Give the backbone structure.
Amino acid sequence: MPTFDDAFQKKLDDLFKWRRDERHFKTDALPDGLLDQLLETATLAPSVGNSQPWRFVKVESAQRRKAVRDNFEACNQDALKDYDGDKAQSYAALKLSGMDDAPAHVAVFCATETKVGQGLGQKTMPETLKYSVVSAIQTLWLSARAQGIGLGWVSIIEPETVKKILDIQEDSWELIAYLCIGYPEAEHDVPELVRTGWQERLPFSRTVLTR
């Protein structure tokens, strides 16, 4: 059994603090094999019934990347219509995707009808399959950050459109995330949306209840 001493726990806390949703990437390629190493680490995440429903699609085609980028632009322009005045100006100024520069793109799907795990733990909360995939993404995120790699989660896209772009034939696969991965241009321990004045972090007391 490994020993997780005080020094390790302090570094682990630092890792949590310095994990950022990255938008600004260097174009430098990742070392050969590193992306697969990170994805393999992601599969160590917990999953309901040991179902392991995550499915990672490495998007290397420039044509497919451009199509996803175009869909993001269309969705982003549509989202802008939800804001008015100063908030609309603030939204328009935000950089909400690192797709142009990030050297690695990964689409993450959930196999919602997988037989692995034999349905254990899913009858009352079938959404735990998707929660398992999110857990894998967080594991990937922290593993990448520990190696100086940034990760950005792009959610302003249409899942079904992205499935078609990537030629995903499995009807039961649902898109959970489109990830940009690469070396960050700068390091920050404060979320970008806090730095730009979009949204402050909530105080801890606002997020914990006692009953």
The longest strand covers residues 173-182. The mean pLDDT is 97.
